[in-house]
Amino acid sequence: MLNGGILFIFVLIACMIISTGSFALGYRVTGYEDVMRWIVVFGGFWLVAFWRGWRWVSALAVLLAVSLAAYGVWFEFGLNWMFSGAAFAFFAWDLTEFQQRLKRLPPRDDVDGMLHRHLIRIGLLAGGALVLTLILSLGQ
Question: If you write DSSP's letter for every residue of 90-140 in order, what string do you get?
Fold first, then answer.
């Protein structure tokens, strides 16, 4: 495993949980309890799929996230929850794809350096997304 592998996995799982939690809370606040339950079930499936190595589930999660966010924005659910859910789903998908690219690199490449730089970029984007979410929540 890569030296930064534990950090990578932690960030990836955190993105999955934040995305799932944001959508679940956004839909729960508006009274969609059944949809919230299905979102949580899918989030659990997403975590299990990551553990099992089923990469395709991340792409499905992004499609679901875009759909949930579009529906939520259209019907004026909490914009901050919808934005956060979609942004972190994209981050999780990106990290899943990046992990696959790293596995295909020859051993002589600076894989750990690439991993750390990518995590820093994702961290900056995630921080920006959280700040924007807070700003949006203050405007509501």
Answer: HHHHHHHHHHHHHHTS-TTS-HHHHHHHHHHHHHHHHHHHHHHHHHHHHT-
136: left (phi over 0), alpha (psi -120 to 50) or beta: alpha
Which pTM was predicted?
0.84
Residue 34 token pair: 């059944």
- Helices 5-29 and 79-103 cross at an angle (nearest 10°) of 150
* Neighbour count for residue 94 (Cβ, 10 Å): 18
Q: What is the mean pLDDT of residues 122-133?
A: 84
Identity (one letter) of the amino acid at 45?
Answer: F
> Of 72, 74, 56, which Cα lies nearest the Cα of 24?
72
Q: Supply 125's token pair.
A: 């984007």
pLDDT tens digits, 66-109: 999 999 999 989 888 898 899 999 999 999 988 888 888 777 77
